Amino acid sequence: MILDIYTKIIADELKQPVSAVQNTINLLEGGATIPFIARYRKEMTGSMDEVVIAQVRDRLVQLKELDSRRAAILKSLREQEKLTPELEAAVINTLTMAELEDIYLPYKPKRKTRASIAREKGLEPLANMIFSQNYDDIARRAGNFIDPEKGVNSVEEAIQGASDIIAEKINEDSFARKRIRNLFQKDSVVLAKVVKGKDEEGVNFQMYFDYNEPLHKAPSHRLLAMFRGENEGFLRISVTVDEDHAHELLERIYVKGNNASTVLVKEAIADGCKRLLFPSIETEMRQWAKEKADTEAIRVFAENMRQLLLAPPLGQKNVLAIDPGFRTGCKVVCLDRQGKLVHNETIYPHPPQNEVKEAIHKIKSLVNAYKIEAIAIGNGTAGRETERLVKSIPFDRDVIALAVNESGASVYSASAVARKEFPDYDVTVRGSVSIGRRLMDPLAELVKIEPKSIGVGQYQHDVDQNALMKSLEDTVVSCVNKVGVEVNTASEELLTYVSGLGPALAKNIITHRNEHGPFKSRSEFRKVTRFGDKAFEQAAGFLRIRDAKNPLDRSSVHPESYTVVDKMAKSLSCTIDELIAKPELRSKIQLNEFTSDKIGMPTLQDIMLELAKPGRDPRQQFEMFEFDKHIHSINDLRVGMKLPGIITNITNFGVFVDLGVHQDGLVHISQLADRFVKDPNDVVKLNQKVMVEVLEIDIDRKRIQLTMKGQHTKPAV
Q1: Domain 2-90 belongs to what topology?
Q2: What is the chain's Cα-based Rg?
Q3: Torsion angle defined by CA atoms of residues 575, 579, 585 and 590, in that order, rounded to the nearest 10 degrees
Q4: Mean pLDDT to the nearest integer, 638-654
């Protein structure tokens, strides 16, 4: 019954059919993963994509948390013997946590307050008299409440205590709180001021030393910057509204007359706002703004992460990878086509050693000895210098050489995963291996690195870390299952992210593979320890077997649909291999002849697409790229230069472009295109090759301002 209520709420909010939401919830509750639901249960969900399914899941969690809090509040109200039918109905029908807490606030056990002390002194009847505004002789009536034994020694003290009670009543009135909350949400301003004496130390936050902006318009990157400045002790942040307007709103609710009592009520409203209501709602608004900023920053990070994970792979090649360095030398490793380390050593072509000839000879001999097809060069310190050296070498065979983003390689090299794989090698060797492998297959290698360490977001260390990790986990899972995993060569880390597996089953698959050899068919997955029916259902379609006898085992067609493909082939008197190889055969298939109560048109259409290109990698084709050969450092730049670059990071305020000078330049969002741009992702994607023009250069601060206007940039796809 409760899930039925959730279904209706979620369906209304997401504007989805109730039946589709109900089926999605049932699948989620039954342990199905988001990639599995999105790919293999389209008939049940109305072809919801992963984003909408995740929204259903997250809202379901919120509603369950709301219900849990609702139950606790009802229990407390019953124990206090304060639960009336009207109050119970209000609690049950509330759909937001803020409104639920507002209803409970008057009944919530609290420490002593000025109002509770006044009540103990017997001043509540006087407060009720004043609040009713039916009396003009309040001073005389207040005299009846003077009681030195209770601590009321004068008329003034009696009236003050009664006013404290009124102020608290207003603060705890759910309707009043809702009105003021709405005012804050629509009209509040976030103010930032520099902490006295912190001007020089907090120079990085100088633009916020005296700053204000409507809260609802403040973009996430500015809010997070201000909150960071506050956390580091350089700024004071406040959220304010027009006090007169707020008082006017509340006076419309509470002011009923025009006498001495009315004057006191107005004073209590002003006091309650300043002392109780404003601070409470300001705290809420700060939290709301932070959550909103976090959500947007996490969205940006996740989108960047998705683009990075789905970057085009070079593929299985013999690769020589170099982790460049000056004083400590360049660590060189050779990897075979499966990414296995076959050789490593160090060369010293740069200062102070300057062993250029020896380095060239060594690289050339390694290229020949290990039949190297590509050279991957880390883009960090000494990267451009090393790239220039490598590209000057006249090899005896065709070899491509290119820079590789090495962000996170050092994190991987020091990780438990790297130590487990290479226990006999130091961090420099492991880092070089990571650089080479991420050229061959970025997805397979980057899943080994903690996502937030890759550095493709904005303020990722300032946002809610649990929410960040959840979002990035979703992103990695989505990308891994979108591409699919070759089960006989995949690492344990990559298998972990496959729908329905996880660490334990991934480990069991590796163990089974090592003990019994490569899998020959998907049916053999059931022989793996603890690989039951549920895991098989969730994972089988995302696991590929490149050399399988059954061509469907190489594809994303789920085993549960194999019988349908068999029927298609039999209807045409051909084999499945022939069905795959001959488009003219597939064109004869009438899909409506193969629908059933379990398989509908969406699944059949997916099957036909897969038969056309079984096991096709959805990632784009790899493209070569070269920086301007004449530009090596920021000192080589000149205003007006037009240069090639690669997008390395995308934020809400613009994108960062690597020009090959060890310092990324910024293309502000206003400089991205000749048209208005709301979201940089509408124009560019991570790792995209672009042409930029240099606008400004600040060598001392290492800042480069760029523009892409006039470059005729096509919309990102």
Answers
A1: Arc Repressor Mutant, subunit A (1.10.10)
A2: 33
A3: 100
A4: 89
